[in-house]
Give the backbone structure.
Amino acid sequence: MRVIDLFAGCGGLSLGLQRAGLDVVAAFDNWTAAANVYRENFDHPMFELDLSGEIDFEVFRQHRPDCIAGGPPCQDFSSAGQRNENGGRADLTLSYAEIISEIRPEWFIMENVERITKSGILVQALEIFRRAGYGLTATVLDASLCGVPQSRKRYILIGRLGEPDDFLRDIIEEQQADIPMTVRDYLGDQLGTDFYYRHPRSYARRGIFSIDEPSPTIRGVNRPIPPNYQFHPGDETHDRGLVRALTTEERALIQTFPPDFVFNGTKSAVEQMLGNAVPVELGHFVGNCIQLFRTRVLNQQVAEQEA
């Protein structure tokens, strides 16, 4: 199953799909720093391409994809951003839908933030997909139920030509864990601390977490605990001496990148890549659900032939 990854970033979704046995044959992104990291870690080509303008569809068609995957940049929908769906990044969701409609691979995967479900842009994109003949399964996945030690909710849309809507829902629900994965479940005592600081969006929120719970969402901001930090009632400890910020490498592990994954570039760029990335094991989960569906279809076809 040949896959191309649009808006691939540093490669979290690509690596996850590869772990599920899909053949990622090419990737595209418009951020040089992320493209350089991608090239360090994958053998297939990464093309730097701006998808906001006029699109040459042959660039994608030449790779003969069975599946197109991608997470159009989400800042215009994100709770961490301006939440302005009329911004230029939101238009990339429609660009993605138009690419799918034109190329018409058998499958597509789209990933975005949960907040996109409240946007008019998504309604337009769904209409484009349906007109192109895709049955759609849309869900919001909590990464901590999908093999990732992180409470990261993401909208996942999977389409296949000729299917009814919700064709993949049963498999997705069956494959999710019953309880969230904690940092300790995934990393054991590798961090060497039981508590860590994640800089909150506002000081009305807690900033200190335990490894015996899922990590909060890894964002592109990583700061040490401020000297004047006022402890929050929800903080897991009020002993400053037990708390430190996570390193960039540790944050990559919580995003389920393997320890040997090479991140080069400036610290701020790498932190931003990590905040933008699809957790590797979330991509693996999605790819595995697709593979299970394909196996069921194949088994059904074999049974019908034998009958």
The first strand starts at residue 2 and ends at 6. The first helix runs from residue 12 to 19. Residues 77-88 have pLDDT under 50 and may be disordered. The CA atoms of residues 195 and 210 lie 5 Å apart.
